[in-house]
Amino acid sequence: MRPLRLRPALLALAAGLACSDSTGPTVNGPSFFHVALDGHPWTPDTVTGYFFYTHPDSGTLNLFATRTRDSVTEDLTLSIRLPLPGRSLILADTGTVAVGYYSLTDETIPPPQVRSLLFTSTTSTPGTLGVSGFQPRDSVIAGTFSFTASAMPDTAGHRTVAGSFRIHYLTEQVFFPVHPVRRELPPGHRLMMTPQASGRGPG
Fold this sequence. Notes:
By secondary structure, the protein is mainly β. It is built from two helices and twelve strands. It has helices spanning about 10-15, 195-200; strands at about 30-35, 40, 45-55, 60-70, 70-80, 90, 100-105, 115-120, 125-135, 140-150, 160-170, 170-175. The longest helix is centred in the first third of the chain and has 10 residues, at about 10-15. It starts with 7 loop residues before the first helix and ends in a 5-residue tail after the last helix. The relative contact order is 0.22.
């Protein structure tokens, strides 16, 4: 893992979030996910987190909880875009600042039948994620969450997911290689450049 260098903007926000408030867990202590699924306790086997960043203060923080019972594997994921805009976030559709996911895979179901179901938070029934503590220097975040997850596609009912967490996460820089694209022009055509594109002004 590469060392994470944080910009002043993220550190300033972190200073305001480092002290936990009274409505959620602190950043002190081991990682955990306390979860209620459809109102029943749901205890994960493993919890972890990864911050994939393109710049030190910009990227996606994914928090994972997984458990396996017999041949059924369940996963809970909270995906958060950094830098955080504040303490209170909306859990909505994929592509928004924060998204909640719940998935279930039953290995006993033979293919080609559907063995996996994915449920996600939606804009139509948004959930909430409250950040009660965040210390980027120590790679730890804590908070609470609650959302109603809809199946994708929405044909298999809904699941209610709620709980709290403290996750010590890992960081990894993501690189996007740029590959030049060679475009072949049809015979008899020339590449025409505007004055701005050619680096020359008009006239």
